[in-house]
Amino acid sequence: MSASTNPNRAARVAAGVVAGGLSLIAAGVTGAVVAEKRVVSRILDRADPEAGERFGRLRGEPRTVVADDGVPLHAEVDGHGGTGTTFVYCHGYALSQDCWHYQRRDLTGGGRRVFWDQRAHGRSRRGRPEHSTIDQLGRDLYRVIEATVPDGDDIVLVGHSMGGMTILALAERHPELFTDRVAGVALIASTGRLSQVTLGLPSVLGRAIGASTAPFMRTLAWRPGLVDHGRRVARELSFLSSRLFGFGTGEVSAAVVDHLDTMLRQTPVDVITEFWPTIAEHDRLEALNALANVPTLVVCGDRDRITPIDHSEAISEALPEADFVRVPGAGHLVMMECPDAVNDALRTLFGRASAPAVEDAV
Prior knowledge:
GO terms for molecular function: catalytic activity. 45% of the residues lie in helices and 14% in strands. The chain has 362 residues and is α/β, with parallel strands linked by helices. The protein has 2 domains: 3-47 and 204-266, no CATH class; 62-194 and 278-353, Rossmann fold. Strands 1-2-4-3-5-6-7-8 form an 8-stranded mixed sheet, with helices on both faces. Strand 7 (296-301), helix 12 (309-318) and strand 8 (323-327) form a beta-alpha-beta unit. Helix 1 crosses helix 8 (224-233), helix 4 crosses helix 5 and helix 9 packs across helix 10.
């Protein structure tokens, strides 16, 4: 039986690609399959200054936040209150709060910090498939704020990719919050409208791959258990595709790539397929109006294949007072790839948002 008629083999190959993920971009990594073991070995053999990092092991005080549809969401609180500002971090698609490792490690003090796992990601529970929407994530964020931010505290919201979309969904539903309490917003590698993404490939090929994503996702949803098994088996391909689509053109620590790959592989494939339609249809540029008078930071790597730099440029154009930081050579996981550049930009935002409260935090 050929590979094209063997559904088990086909699912295993597709699954390995999905783990590289941001899982939507399978066709782009097939050329790496032949040399994958040799390439991965070469990467892993390099001296790695990040090998001792405690990825996934930085923890705060656990909180359970119940969403408006009854789903338990996992949040963690770091630091102490009393400064008048709480910082809330929202992670991206197929990741978890652990993607903020370097921000959690380095941006300490100065107030309460809240890290939470979006529904069906990390340690948060899953809801009904029809609730896997950006609108629901915005409502979830509102509940997280209610449960973890003390009354009277200003709020600084930091979102990466889908986390930025979550912030815009909150702004669309609760614009008054951005007038009364939100003192700052950071949108990192995010977008107000997800369309015309080419995955860093020539435009015609990139759009063709994008158009094939929806049927590809439906195929994956057909046998999620088999696909998840394939993701574990195709470890080298998973690592390579995580490197290719998560990061830019510079040298990246193997430990950092492995940390991303671990988060991706821990996200079940049916969660990935459930959330894809709402991400593909995301269009909330008008919600940026709620941020017009809020100190805002826009950050993107100029080698981001998932939400290319022109998406961040569009946000910056809609918010002319926003600080726009372009990180040369960086990819989609810019806050993991170039943490110093991102942290410096966040320090500036925090200073703009509430100088007296965070002056000593950074």
